[in-house]
Write a structure and sequence with these properties.
Helix content of chain B: 55-70%
Largest sheet of chain B: none
Radius of gyration of chain B: 18 Å
Strand content of chain B: under 5%
CATH topology of chain B: Butyryl-CoA Dehydrogenase, subunit A, domain 3
Largest sheet of chain A: 2 strands, parallel
Number of helices of chain B: 8
Order of helices and strands of chain B: HHHHHHHH
Distance between the termini of chain B: 50 Å
Oligomer: heterodimer
Largest interface: A-B, 28 and 39 residues
Structural class of chain B: mainly alpha
Shape of chain B: globular
């Protein structure tokens, strides 16, 4: 019993040989392997074609995916284009200031007052000359076109000295806004 | 496919491998499952899968082992589907006339030994088929079945104990 050990050392007796022989005999042969291979050949070629098509499709898909990924990742691919300024010297900076344009207001028109006895041309422009308030009697003899000026030299405040704020009839007496010439 | 120069173990030729291995594989798997047609289909399918990858598989240490492993898995899938179908028919109240993976011997069992092998548990049946019919080593049987060497020895010992009476009977 021990002199017929199997190669794997299982300790089987000659029963193994009988068992193997009986099992092999119980299964009939499959015939010619060459004939089977020849019959199998179209199936093999078809499988190979399917396999190649699958590999080619997968490769094309991978290339498309890589191209799409590259296009999405590379800077500038997203549509932002940096263009240098044209015809601008180096170092020049441009500042943009926003100015608010004031809306024009109605101009204050000087009242045109015809002097009572004046011989002037009538276009007497009031002059606020608050020099001591003594000259507020009016200058009816003026020839006319004097530019209204506000000269507050030495005088008090406009209100107290009777200087006129509006108009050309300056006058210091009485604190009136209008001089006697008005 | 010619072996490469400078290499001691060149890639195997597909046609040669098929001619040498097809019949032993079909015979052993026929014993394992009791269905010769199913075994032949599984082996042919495994060779077809090997053919499209032959450039890679031919460089393996044992290309035939890869084919055998795939064929066995295909056979398991086949009988798993058959078993599900049989159970579905039973649930619906019908009767199946063909039990392929059960303990009963297949209809084509020619003698008592084949019937006894068919009555073995599945793992023992496969181990017996690969070891006795295809005459693989325990190591190759273990690699094909995805088991350890000790597990294969256990299955072989149990199967041999069960089959002893049939073999020693006059």
């Amino acid at each position: 019993m021990t002199d017929h050990l199997s190669p794997d050392g299982l300790g089987f007796d000659p029963l193994d040989d009988a068992l193997g022989r009986a099992l092999r005999d119980s299964v009939p042969g499959t015939g010619d392997a060459d004939a089977t291979l020849a019959a199998l050949r179209p199936r093999l070629e078809s499988a190979r074609r399917r396999r190649r098509a699958a590999v080619a499709g997968a490769s094309a898909l991978a290339v498309l995916a890589i191209a799409a990924l590259t296009f999405a990742v590379v800077p500038g691919g997203g549509g932002n284009v940096n263009t240098p300024p044209a015809n601008r010297p180096d170092g020049a900076t441009t500042t943009t200031t926003t100015t608010l344009t004031p809306t024009p207001t109605e101009p204050v028109t000087a009242p045109t007052v015809a002097p009572p006895g004046g011989s002037g041309s009538g276009a007497t422009t009031a002059t606020t000359d608050d020099k001591g308030g003594s000259s507020g009697s009016g200058d009816d003899s003026g020839s006319g076109d004097t530019t209204p000026t506000t000269d507050d030299k030495g005088g008090g405040s406009d209100d107290t000295s009777g200087g006129s704020q509006v108009g050309g009839c300056s006058g210091g007496e009485g604190g009136s806004n209008r001089g006697p010439g008005c | 496919m010619k072996p490469r120069e400078g290499e001691g173990h060149g890639p195997a030729d597909f046609d040669t491998t098929f001619r040498e291995q097809y019949e032993p594989m079909v015979r052993s798997l026929s014993v394992a499952c009791g269905d010769r047609e199913a075994a032949a289909d599984a082996v042919q399918d495994a060779f077809t899968r090997a053919f499209v990858r032959w450039r890679k598989i031919s460089r393996y240490d044992d290309p035939a082992g890869w084919v055998r492993h795939v064929a066995l898995n295909r056979l398991r899938d086949h009988f798993r589907r058959s078993e599900r179908g049989r159970r579905a028919v039973e649930r619906l109240g019908g009767q199946t006339d063909h039990v392929v993976d059960g303990p009963e011997p297949p209809a084509e069992a020619p003698d008592a030994l084949a019937g006894a092998v068919a009555g073995l548990p599945k793992q023992q049946r496969i181990a017996v088929a690969l070891y006795y019919v295809e005459q693989l080593s325990v190591l190759d049987v273990a690699a094909t079945m995805g088991l350890s060497e000790g597990a294969v020895k256990y299955h072989l010992h149990a199967a041999r104990t069960s089959l002893r009476e049939v073999v020693e009977a006059p």
